[in-house]
């Protein structure tokens, strides 16, 4: 509320003069006025008041009533008679804004005519104002609608004539409300404890209005609180702000008008106003006022007696605070704000109740942004601004919390804070070691808001040593993650477009102090650190060699974090930071791009694959070819030959040596342009596209300015031509942002053609993961990544985080670019437009302002989400209990088909949900989720072809609302949130989690004879050549003691073709698959495949945990980890077992992965399964040739060797039942127990004349049920369960001796017939 210089013109009695002197800073009280004097005075005061409000008080006692035309009465020049004064003339003299008070009879007529005259003034102004030639008027219009009017009674009414009341009752209510309220209270005879003879003592109330410790001051304080509360609860927010928060005098008169309305209505007068106020005489809070007056009057005789009893303060505010606290304890956030909110603000003026009031206010603000807006609407801001001058330590916690909430909702308060030097208060809190980390975080948040795009705030903060304070607190021992995050954001905002602050940071080695935060376990802290470093390297007004060196050091440090960080938000921020390096050193990156294009045009390997010795000779090689008449490209003073007909003028660009900083950064950008996350790749694509666009712009410019060109016959050289043109001399600078192309000039995303060209420019495959998981298994994703923006940025989530909190919440922000210019600091005259922008800071502010209310349901036992989670946990616990009984179950057959469906493409991976009745089926390019109990298709998800083919599936946090992890053969990993009702699964995150070896060129296999129809069918259903399982020479073996008659040797799968037992394969094998395993107990993801390491990602920190060196040249073909099963005896095993394409098996202890526990070399073909049963001390391994080995893990000795019908496509071991299954490409599924005994085989679908199953491509067991899912290359998916057939249940459970012999004989005959069928020549 402002204290304005309000001028008062009062025509009233001397008894009321001093009251307006107390209310107004400039008052003029005139008793006998003529029309000329009124005109002169009004014009003079309006001229002096300028745009401030002028108050005109008319006391019309003893003069005629206003006329029907709205005329009031004044004296003539001789003071002998009254003459009318038109309101039209008075409006002209008073101007606007003004406030009119009419204490006379028939006052409503004046207000009605005032509106009519105001409209007439506006019409005349529009008619008389001549617009200038430009069409704009030079004189601003006068708006009389902003004038306020208060009248004592309505039209046709007369003022009360009661001898017990003052003649100017309306004026008395406006100027002396406390005294008038007491007199009226006594006159009504409603006193309960007040003596009857107290009326004569009312004018002697002790104290001052401004002293709240006295009776009069406290009553005025309570009256202000009550009238403010009545108005706030009854009026619209706009009207409340206009009347009760505009200025002190207007607010005081409006509050007193509410009392006048109550009193005068009791005497049949209806006060009127403009704008019109509703009658609030019957509001319930007036009863609290009457009680306060009753208690005060009861003490008045004793206080005025000779003993002078001290005044006992009213319990009013204490009771109102208690009522507010009851609302907070029992109320609902969906209800309107409590009635006591304005009273709490009045309590802040008292030191007695201030601490309690601030604490209650903090609880109210914690309800959300709507609570903050309600408090701001009431008018808390001036109160809190004054409290910044208080030095009491007990107020600091509440003060920083309230100011943080205000800053989150209304960032424009930064100007008021700087003017009041409020930043010093928060700096003192930030460096106070006695303040806890939470409130220091709030102080850092407020400081970050003060310096956000506000040059005066940045300058004041820098002078206040904010830089050194923030750097000191970065590594405080008790610092919380949120404190580190907002300290980094505060530094970033301080450095943004402010060169003085950046150079101050250079002197303090700020970038080196920020580097440790790049390894912080919290991704939001790492993203904030990258944001700070990004503003640290922004192009400055003046460049120096020292600045260039620091920028390059920071860029290299950020690029080195790309393959190690799993968070998309961090990768997006790294790209936003690296763009400033690209903008600063554009010529160097253009030289790298040109050098890369020249290398490709000569048919040489791209950058990143060039031998260092050859690359060192590249300069000499480029200048080869003498006598080139056409133009050329000069890199480092050496002319590069290009086709003469290309008309490329010679240009000099910086020399780029092999392994230079710019080459490494360019490789990082090109690698991120192929990032599996679509938003991250879009950001990188825009930066790469910007560099290419600069080539086009420069080329077009040079082509237009070239004076002449030599035209020669085209060269017979068949190499690709470089379609770029370059500057002619070294001193020429490249175009700045004003000459860049817009969307039509270059694409915002890399097209498929550009992606293919860039795909060979680097072999760096960066890893980008997502989100940590904290707690036993639930997943929470709560992050932002940038969004595509043009102009105002849209706030969509982009980062995300898997946290182990129960439940899951996704904030996924799409990450495209903002091509619109950003607001720059005034001092940075040469600042360039950013190529891309992210929304991480805005998301962090939104999360901070939200107050974490999203997770309140975890503590609310009545909420629906809480009950759903409780039911889910109870169901999962019961399923795990029932599953433990499978350890003792005796399963004899597994052949009953419970589900069968056909897919669009042949399935490659299949996966059961451990708790829900869901099954996931993936092909090369998509995946779908079915309910295998009802056969309903729940959802279908698409897969980006550029990410490769799907090779692995895994449920993450399956006991909660599970996420689905999908891995591809290129090492890309994506996490989806499955959806129901036919909706497409939502992409949560994606990253390149494994750096796979480059695939070798594929050669088709030589011609081979066909040995069986099964082989022909199997090869018929195979996909592209890179997906076929190559079959080498076949040899017959002696009959295995376990019943398998033949064995087919298959070429080993691995990067080395000679590593297997088959030496005459004659072609390179296809690229192996990427394997994936999730361990909920350790909250880590493990990936293996055609890579020299097994990579472990920590989902808690969203960072790469460590790499386990396999020590094997062959690719990993099977992966098992302890703790991945929902039911395991003895707790999770830390063992990790990997099978390889050369037939070896290796195991490590994940706690000490430096050396393997053991390594086995018993197989001769690729290992398909390595499964350990810790409860049985058993490990089962199986390979492509069909050899199954069962080991005793205590002795590392082989217990059983079984030869299954090969070649095998998949092998799996049930985690609870004593079963393992083998799926063959010969259209056969074999079920064995852990002793190697064949239980049954499945070759045909169920039903009469059931068709033969297709060649098996994948199979898996259900982790908690005795069920087997099988996918075949004929695009069918089936689920087999252990239910027995009709008529066989009694014989299998209780066989008689004769029946037992017959059953055994039948099994032997079936085996013989099966073997005979297999060996029958076709």
How would you describe this protein?
Mean pLDDT is 76; it is low at 1-8, 12-19, 21-28, 133-137, 604-650, 707-830, 1001-1070 and 1285-1322. Helices cover 35% and strands 16% of the residues. The chain is of the alpha+beta class. The chain has 38 helices and 39 strands. Strand 37 (1256-1261) and strand 38 form a beta hairpin. The strands form ten sheets. A six-stranded mixed beta sheet has the order 2-1-3-6-7-8, with helices on both faces. The longest helix has 28 residues, at 678-705. Helix 7 runs antiparallel to helix 10, helix 7 runs antiparallel to helix 12 (341-347) and helix 26 (545-560) runs antiparallel to helix 27 (568-584). Residues 4-115 form the Raptor N-terminal CASPase-like domain. This is Regulatory-associated protein of mTOR. It holds the Pfam family HEAT. GO terms for molecular function: protein-macromolecule adaptor activity. Residues 700-719, 729-770, 1026-1066 are annotated as: Disordered.
Strand order of the largest sheet: 2-1-3-6-7-8
- Distance from N terminus to C terminus (CA atoms, Å) equals 99 Å
Strand content: 15-25%
Helix/strand structural class? alpha+beta
- From the spread of the alpha carbons, the general shape counts as elongated
Radius of gyration: 42 Å
Largest sheet: 6 strands, mixed
Number of strands: 39
Name the features:
alpha+beta, 16% strand, elongated, ARM-like, 39 strands, six-stranded mixed β-sheet, 1322 residues, disordered C terminus, Regulatory-associated protein of mTOR, four-stranded antiparallel β-sheet, single chain, 38 helices, WD40_repeat_dom_sf
